[in-house]
Design a protein that fits this description.
single chain; 263 residues; alpha/beta; TIM Barrel; two-stranded antiparallel ribbon; 9 helices; 10 strands; globular; binds phosphoenolpyruvate; binds manganese (II) ion; 3-deoxy-7-phosphoheptulonate synthase activity; transferase; 3-deoxy-7-phosphoheptulonate synthase; aldehyde-lyase activity; EC 2.5.1.54
Length: 263
């Protein structure tokens, strides 16, 4: 179903008037985790000022260590909704449990399925029953074929509004947290008709090379970029080292919009 051979035209996914996968690109920005109203409001205000329409924020956090912050759960989804409504933004948040898909529909606009759950087939099937779009992240060590098969699980279960996001894969390289596989962008665009985005933050785990990586993604045909932004990254409860503060995000955004690659 997701194959370009099956459908030659791009799938365009409209989220509250924001079209993803068409002629224009989308920026998705926000904190790694939802932490408080104040944190979200500060980010939301900066996004609105920049004309950015989609805010991210994790409420259910699949952390490598069980002792790390696990997210605010349903409370976090409620906070996202309240702040998004206040600032006129759309939201995306990760769902990790099949039983929470219906709940997600009440509070958020896009369901994120994280890298660690790319092959959680029961979750994929349940996301296939959702009435809202799904952003599927590439697994930590998933081939593109496995990634496309995972998307197919969602589509065949009834939800054709699927977006793919390259977020870096695990290699021997240590200067970046993951290795951004830029070739995934043209290949996924070629093999599927789905929107393809690039998460430059998790791909690199760094703050200093986001602009060239975002430009490369856009030049390769990406339909959008995801970036983590936090009002005070040093105190962030997750991914403190890689989140941009608001002035750093404003600088990145200026670089992206002035590059001519983001329409
Ligand atoms: C995230 O986007 O917050 C996240 C956990 O990313 P990934 O699933 O790509 O590691
Ligand atoms: Mn993160």
């Amino acid at each position: 179903l997701v194959s370009r051979k099956k459908q030659p035209e791009n799938t365009v996914i409209a989220v509250n008037g924001t079209r993803i996968g068409g002629e224009t690109q989308v920026m998705i920005a926000g904190p790694c985790s939802v932490e408080s109203y104040e944190q979200l409001q500060t980010v939301a205000s900066a996004l609105r000022k920049a004309g950015i329409k989609v805010m991210r924020g994790g409420a259910f956090k699949p952390r490598t260590s069980p002792y790390d912050f696990q997210g605010l759960g349903i409370e976090g989804l409620k906070m996202l909704k309240e702040v998004a409504d206040e600032f006129g933004l759309s939201t995306i948040s990760e769902i990790v449990h099949p039983a929470h898909i219906e709940l997600a529909e009440q509070y958020i606009d896009i369901i994120q399925i994280g890298a660690r759950n790319m092959q959680n087939f029961e979750l994929l099937k349940e996301a296939g029953k959702a009435r809202i779009p799904v952003l599927l992240k590439r697994g930590l060590a998933a081939t593109l074929e496995e990634f496309v098969h995972a998307a197919e699980y969602i589509a065949v279960s009834g939800n054709s509004r699927v977006m793919l996001i390259e977020r870096g894969i695990r290699t021997y390289e240590k200067w970046t947290r993951n290795t951004l596989d830029i070739s995934a962008v043209p290949l996924l665009k070629q093999e599927t008709h789905l929107p393809v985005l690039v998460d430059v933050t998790h791909s690199t785990g760094r703050k200093d090379i986001l602009l060239p990586c975002a430009k490369a993604a856009l030049a390769a045909g990406a339909d959008g970029i995801m970036v983590e932004v936090h009002p005070d990254p040093q105190t962030a409860l997750s991914d403190a080292a890689q989140q941009l503060d608001i002035p750093q995000f404003a600088e990145l955004w200026e670089g992206i919009t002035s590059s001519g690659l983001f329409k």
